[in-house]
Amino acid sequence: MTVNSNARESSQANARSIQDLQEQIEVLQSQLKDLQKIVEDLESRLFHSTDRYIANCPSCQTRFDMLAHHYSIGLFDNLVYVKCPKCNKALPVKGGSTGEISVIQE
Ligand SMILES: [Zn+2]
Q1: What is the 3-state secondary structure (H, E, C) of 56-98?
Q2: Looking at the predicted structure, is the pLDDT value of residue 77 above 80?
């Protein structure tokens, strides 16, 4: 075996390992793309799940979190009220079977 053939083999090995690295980078890039898609999906689900509890006050149009501002449950009519944090208006809330709640608009 001559020095020349050694050098050629080693440069072929280098070329192979560079190709291997490029293939690994492509695999990682596609995995990264998949993960970004999953994160985007989780973000939109999180956004919609918190959005279910956001109400608009019919009086002053303030947007607020109903879970943070509920204050009483009616004994006879089984109504839950939320109080608008800005104008303090009591707003009856209706609940759906899917867990969604919303202010009853007058
Ligand atoms: Zn209000």
Answers
A1: ECCCCCCEEEHHHHEEEECCCCCCEEEECCCCCCEEEEEECCC
A2: no
